[in-house]
Amino acid sequence: MDPGPSSSSSPSVQNSQRSHARKNEVGKKRPSSSFHTQEALEKQADSIAASTRIPITFQNSIPASVKGAKPPKSLSGIKDKKLRSQMAKQHMSQKRALHARQLADEYLNHSIPGEEAGLIQTEQELERTYRVTQSQVRDNVGIETATKAFELNLDGGNGGHGLGPYRTDYTRNGRHLLIGGRKGHLAAFDWQSGKLSCEIHVRETVRDVCWLHDQSFFAAAQKKYAYIYDNRGIEIHKLKNHVEVQRMQFLPFHYLLATVGSSGYLKYQDTSTGNLVSQHRSALGSCKTMAQNPLTAVIHLGHANGTVTLWTPNLSTPALKLLAHRGPVTGISIDTRNGAREMATSGLDGSIKVWDSRMLGKGPRREWISRTPASEIAYSQRGLLGVGWGNHVSVYDTMATLGNAPPGPYLTHNIPGATPISLQFCPFEDVLGVGHSKGFTSLIIPGSGEPNYDTGEVDPFETKKRRREREVHSLLDKIQPEMISLDPTLLGSIDAKDPFKPDPLSLDGDGVRLIRPDSIVKSADGRSFSKLSRYEKLQLQGLDLEDGMDFVRSDEEDEDAVAAGEDEGRINLGSNAVRVGAGKKEKSKEKNKMRGKNSAMKKYLRKKKMNVIDPKTIELKERIERKKAQEKALERARLNNGRQEGSTSALDVFVTSQKRRR
Fold it and tell me: For residue 276, is pLDDT > 90?
């Protein structure tokens, strides 16, 4: 008896039935509204794409603002496809980096509600914040903040002699403080914990002090030279090239120590290699005012004739010169917000001016006259301007909406019997450090410091291990001095203009390039037209030298022709400029810089090279002997005057005596 079919089938039978049903399903016709062909759908029937998706990290790699963006049209002028594609990729990566930077700025620099930076707010309209004293501020802030207001009395006590006035400097993370007295007192310490790093007395004049890349080293401008010390007060280096330094600034991203002294020379010293990078002569006399732009690393100098000059290491002349005051400039400071566009200056004429670097030609954006000429000014991280005048320190909010009226002071503090000569806001703290003749004073200025900081850049609470790692990374990421410029956006850009393509406006009807009066004609190796030889000048003018030399004129005729204007305008530079001087390199002529007839250095070098025999010396001696022999032969031939060699004359006695007189 044959049993009937079982109600429960085996798994293999079920799988075959499912696959058969799926095939029948696939075999059915799809509606005509589908955008995919039947063949494509059959290939994807067993695919796993329906149950998978692109990872979120890949989806968010391209921001919405960058999607669909195209490279600029200026790249279309690049003929090299590989270079054009690389520049397009670089442009897109810059866009993505800009978007990532905006997100990081939003997360880092936007505080949570209730913890953002803010100024003192008055309750009534007639109240003024400048009437608030430091004692009232300490009574209304937290205990930890109140301890940051202190005073170091270094005047020597009753009948004593102080070591001031003092110059001050904070580290980039705002943790350590360096003070230097005019009479030789140097001290470095952690001002928040009160831990002293070192304290020394150099027993000579100290004009300025400056931290280097971190709290491990600092520089002091002493009576004659500048010196570098470590955090234990041990002298590490003596910078003999920096003489009578008045002011110093350290560029942390370039490891450059910039100094200016009484001689008016601006010098850049590389502290990582010990080399003197460059030195520029300002030609404006002694300089006692110096500041740096933290974003562009451009040095600003204030001079005695009221001008402000901007310097970079790769330019021997000022990149910009501005007549700011009618008297000597006493203070310069740069606001780091909004791309470091604002610059504040003060002078002995009593005026304080705030400039917009984009519109310097239109004059200052805001200007006012102080009761006493300001001795020092400084910007805070939040844009407050500290001004030291007389025995007072005033803080101004230059962004206050007051029209053209001078801004009223935000806070004011009086230091009896002491003139502030050094002002500096502590980074990431609402603290203003004032150095004066009696010592040092730390003032609490609410709203002056940036409340948020990036621990990857500067960290006030970094450990010893983290400091070492940051120092190594900063050395690896060191920026070369040649990259300092007024406009940092020029770095990384490319000039798509073809240098070999002539300007169509400078061609005449025959296709010959015309030279304008203000242009400079040069050969392929960079020599100007006036430095070329006569043959090269003719070759550059496109004249055929093989047809004859009838066109050749003397130098006097050339000068007459140039004076008459006959040779102006028509010079062929198509291929001749590339051909003339190609493959040649102009030999630089060594200038004779000897001062005096017989200096000590010349004697030393002559004695040093007396017994040195090398191939160059032998060749030089042989050349000199040959030249002397030729001169003797010529002189003998001139004296003989056609006579046989060896014959003498009675007149030879007079010729010999005349030669001896010479």
Answer: yes
